[in-house]
Amino acid sequence: VCVCVCVCVCVCVCVCISADGEVTSKPMVIENQIENKIAFIRQHAIRVRIHALLVDRYLQTYYDKLGWFSDPYEVFQDIVNDPDKYYIFKSILAKTNVSKFDLPDKEAYQDFFGVNPVSGFKQLSYHCSWSAGCLLENIERAITHTLPALLSGAASPPPPPLPGTCEGPGCEETPKNRWRRQ
């Protein structure tokens, strides 16, 4: 039987009584769950960022290759069927914090654009506003700053030093100035 008491969303303590009457406390289980959720959200944000960059690159290539008398459907089908010809994935790999292991398959975007027409998307530059900034910048800020700060805040503090030992910044010897008269 376990009883959990939560002070707020991040601080919960579970006390469990086993069948033989032993009482145990499980605060670490909940801390690990929170850390795992934050890590999962960060991974999902990375996938969303890469997807947004890829769709934006497909759109940019489409608008660059679309001429006055060309068929829009044929132009886009050519781009989707042969993205290597237009360096779609290589240009995304050249961006910061993008790994080749994070990139989805080319076939996934053939399926994606088969279901979602190109006319339903706007380029990322159109999603910028003066008050909220750009969506891609917000995602990147969350990936690089906000979520890691949450993760470090969710980590448990280090145990206090044992009595009689001195650890930490307050215990260090202060350096003496050997050039100063005493």
Automatic annotation (TrEMBL):
Q: In terms of domain of life, where is this protein from?
A: Eukaryota
**InterPro entries, sorted:** TRAFAC_Dynamin-like_GTPase
Keywords assigned = Signal
Region Disordered: what ranges?
154-182
Record keyword Signal present: yes
Signal peptide start and end residues: 1-21
The UniProt entry's coiled-coil ranges are none
- Name of the protein described by the UniProt record: Sarcalumenin
Q: Which organism is it from?
A: Labrus bergylta
